[in-house]
UniProtKB/TrEMBL annotation:
UniProt keywords, alphabetically: Hydrolase, Magnesium, Manganese, Metal-binding
Sequence ranges assigned to domain Endonuclease/exonuclease/phosphatase in this UniProt record: 4-248
Name recorded for this polypeptide: Exodeoxyribonuclease-3
Active site positions: Y106, D147 (proton donor/acceptor), H248 (proton acceptor)
Record site: Important for catalytic activity: D218
Length: 258
């Protein structure tokens, strides 16, 4: 079973890229972030025609998350991260697919830091930690995946010295991710590739993709029951080189069917 996450950076503007990637790789489950489309503008018909069912939580111009499934039914569990009733951002959606609880998330960027946006990022992280612990306590297979907007270590960023003051790499952000993982989650990519430079995002500027000046900010965190099932993980880096593509590449894991 292949599960993928992909920050599409605008689901309608990048729809040809998304459909091409789906056709070429046929993942079983896909988590999308940064739809940048209101609820009624999600391209459901095109997604269905590509062979996928979908649930989504849209938002005009910004944010937005979705979960697609090729064969297994999608049972939506929630579409808001608990902990702040006034938070109107569409950044989290959760469903049960093929016996696995899958949380698709788009964590706030937080720049400029320090400032209100960074405070919101850290507060969102705390809410995620609280909910993640609740999910762990279920003792069932859970996967939390998406764009976390954090590079956990210096290995995860090209020229880390240039990112010291950035909200994605500040000590507070990295500490929040570390605390999340230490609840009992497993970083799938780092488990299989502990020492390799692996990036999932390349800026549009200064030929970042051509120079491989990237960041690893899209992550898979696995609950203990999923870890023994992990077979493979990777990044479809070539997709970042396609025309009119996202600045992120799709990231995926393969797990044993139960």
């Amino acid at each position: 079973m292949r599960i993928a996450t992909y920050n599409v950076n605008g689901v309608n503007g990048r729809l040809p890229v998304l459909l091409r990637w789906l056709a070429e790789t046929s993942p079983d489950v896909v988590c999308l972030q940064e739809l940048k489309a209101p609820q009624e503008k999600f391209p459901e018909a095109a997604i269905n025609a590509a062979g996928y069912k979908a649930i989504w939580h849209g938002q005009k111009s910004w944010n937005g998350v979705a979960i697609l499934s090729r064969e297994a039914p999608i049972k939506e569990l929630r579409r808001v991260l608990p902990g702040d009733e006034e938070d109107a951002h569409s950044r989290y959606i959760e469903a049960q697919v093929a016996g696995i609880v899958i949380g698709c998330l788009y964590l706030p960027n937080g720049n400029p830091a320090p400032g209100p946006k960074f405070d919101y990022k850290l507060a969102w992280f705390k809410r995620l930690q609280t909910h993640a612990q609740t999910l762990l306590d279920l003792g069932t297979p859970v996967i939390l995946t998406g764009d976390y907007n954090v590079m956990p270590t210096e290995l995860d960023v090209y020229k880390p010295e240039r990112w010291v003051e950035d909200a994605l790499f500040r000590p507070e952000t990295r500490a929040a991710f570390k605390a999340l993982v230490e609840q009992g989650w497993t970083d799938a990519i780092r488990t299989l590739y502990p020492d390799e430079k692996i990036y999932t995002f390349w800026d549009y500027f200064r030929d970042a993709y051509g120079r491989n000046a990237g960041l690893r900010i899209d992550h898979f965190l696995l609950s203990p029951p999923v870890v023994p099932r992990l077979l493979k993980a990777g990044v479809d880096k070539n997709v970042r080189g396609w025309e009119k593509t996202s600045d992120h590449a799709p990231v995926w894991i393969e797990i044993k069917n139960k």
